Sequence to fold (233 residues):
Amino acid sequence: MTQAIMTRATTLPDPDDAWRDAVAHLCARDLVLGRIIAAMGPCGLKARSGGFAALMDIIAAQQVSKYAADSIRRRLRKSFGDPPDVARVAAARTPRLRGCGLSGAKAKYIRGIAREVVAGTLDFDHLHAQNDDAVMERLLSLNGIGRWTAEIYLMFVLTRPDIFPIGDGALRNAIREHYALRKSAKLKKFETIARGWAPYRTVASWYLYAWINRTRAEKRAAKGAAKKEEPMV
Fold:
């Protein structure tokens, strides 16, 4: 852990922070998370543009690195517009979708969802007006949508405040590191920790994701610096 994390969180969130109540609640309830919050600063969680484009992007990010996902998204936008033309995606042939970097399965899933939107059987405006359970149920009914994808949509598109994507391995690794859990720790242990963050588990997860992204960036930077310093032979 860095020195920032070893220092107790003593500063309250900025009054203009949209998540100030959530941050104050988390700092008061969990010292470990409070230290992470103190190191990361204000919560930057903001709703992404929703609908088909957002769901397509999340599917593209399934089980690939952030950098691979960003590359796929750029190619999808170049091929289908920004935001993507749903009708064009629905009519696209598999090779065109795969040419954007999607696997065959993901191409099938995205095209299938686009066809539901075109047919009117999937209405995102209606979906967004539903409660968490109803949104989850509808998303899980779509081919290619698992719990992680649905939870990420709820968190980052709808900014529902109390979502905890326990199926995310990177998130569990971050919790394991900061809370000194064994590698063999059961899911119930993670759920118990996260229960203390309610009703703001989304915000707590956002801070852990922010920590993960910053740690990865620091490691890449250090690796790049070390490579530059290698002697010429």
User: Anything to note?
Assistant: The chain has two domains: 3-45+165-222, 52-156. The CA atoms of residues 131 and 160 lie 9 Å apart. Confidence is low (pLDDT under 50) at residues 1-13. The chain has 14 helices and no strands.
